[in-house]
Design goal:
Blueprint lengths: L7 H18 L3 H13 L4 E2 L5 E2 L7 H8 L33
Antiparallel strand pairs: 1-2
Amino acid sequence: MKVKFVDEEARQRLIIWIRKRMDEFGITPDSLASSIRHDQENPPIYRDARGNEWNGLGEMPDWLRAAENAGVNPDFFSVKDVKGSPLEKVDDVDPRQLDLFN
């Protein structure tokens, strides 16, 4: 996400606010970088219309388990295109979910 800040003072205030929140919650730059790297190495396999995602690691999340228990095939939430390759852009929207945004 690229954002152009017109007001340099607002940018600096935002940086200070983010650093304070990181200190408050014990988030280090190394832990943040590690988390980003993990997310890049393990992209989501499933995503619902509300933006909930699961990369297939660990226990199946409640939202996907509830859908499966209701008879919905988890493949319905797959973020892979028809050819089976992951969608390249995060901004791409699964065509099955387009009616939710109109």
